[in-house]
Amino acid sequence: MTQICEVEPQNPSIEIIRRAARIIRMGGLVAFPTETVYGLGADAMNATAVRKIFAVKERPLDNPLIVHVADEGSIKKLAANIPDEAKILIEKFFPGPITIVLEKKPVVPDVTTANLPTVALRMPNNKVALSLIEESGTPIAAPSANKAGRPSPTKAQHVLEDFKGEVDLILDGGPTTFGLESTVVDLTVNPPQLLRPGAVTLEMLNDAIGQVQVHPSVKLEMSSEDLAKSPGMKYRHYAPRAELVVVTGRDEDVAKKIREMINMFRSKGLRVGVASTTGMEYSADYVEKLGRTKLEIASRLYDGLRRFDEAEVDIIIAEGVDECGLGLAIMNRLKKASDYRVVRA
Ligand code: TXA
Ligand code: MG
To answer: CA-CA distance, 172 to 182, in Å (whole number)?
Structure first.
């Protein structure tokens, strides 16, 4: 049975938080809101509880989890040889939408970090999350609360869609603020490396600790010369989510290209959806306006992607954004959702 409890985001009921904390201490699973996306939490120090996360999420055991803490003291208990860059980032951005990778201490179970010698640490800027960690009296390991491969959850309803009956309790603290997962920076290498872009942007990191290297996977894309073939791929799977293609370039060129693509796909009898970031008009079967500012687009992206499932389109064409600031994180998620298929208009 999965219980859902609504909590006030700014002032969560202590009774409900204590009930959730008891579940964590007993080795159960609690989904909770953060400022980025909802997390699927378990006691990070309890290997059996952590294994449950991997099982219900259907996540490969070689993909490590982020350990969430509520105070700086916990960071010292979990990580060794904390470099100056870490101290600066903690001072500047904790609590906030950033995760730092540090050398791990042996107390952290190997299953939590997928046998890596490092541990990813994050202090979420959300009262529900922080009070849950405090009341549990233990750090909480939490991946995004979605089945592996699905868009991350930005509402409690999304968690329920993916995990009904599989988690003990969902704390519903309303929609999340940023809507994209935290920035992940590896501080065990020199120079530090950005592994996943998020709301703490590359520019903010460079300002704080000097040149940060961007991991090659962050900007990965595939040229799709042969885009016309890609809709056919959907027949290879039994029940696929719609294919996604990202189109980048100047707004007018993007709009022109997308209109051509809509006509081309519809002439093949496909239902076409457009994820719009410019407010441009399209005569597609379904158009999801994600907003005009990067903050809006980021916060609505995953909910928007889930809506295309309901609209039962065969293909989604997304307008890209520039890769400055929060744009790097938005484009990274769009590219991942598209299997890295980017068309330059
Ligand atoms: O915003 C977020 O970070 C959310 C909320 C719930 O806090 N959590 C989240 O977790 O996105 P997850 O598991 O979906 O993504 C964690 C990412 C993965 O890409 C994982 O490979 C990476 O962080 N990661 C975790 N531990 C790591 C480590 N020791 N070294 C390198 N990467 C690590
Ligand atoms: Mg995730």
So the answer is: 20
Angle at 333 between CA 328 and CA 334, to 5 degrees: 95
pLDDT single digits (tens) 227-268: 445 544 433 333 347 899 999 999 999 999 999 999 999 999
**How far apart, in whole angstroms, are the C-alpha atoms of residue 290 and residue 293?**
9
Ligand 1: residues within 6 Å at CB?
Answer: 34, 36-37, 39, 63-66, 99, 101, 113, 116, 118-120, 122, 124, 142-144, 181-182, 184, 186, 195-196
Spatial distance between the Cα atoms of 343 and 264, rounded to a whole number of angstroms: 15
> What is the distance in A from the centroid of ligand 2 to the CA of 337?
12
Domains (range + CATH), the chain:
3-218 (3.90.870.10), 243-344 (3.40.50.11030)
Smallest CA separation from ligand 1 atom 15, residue: 143
Bridge partner list, 287? 274
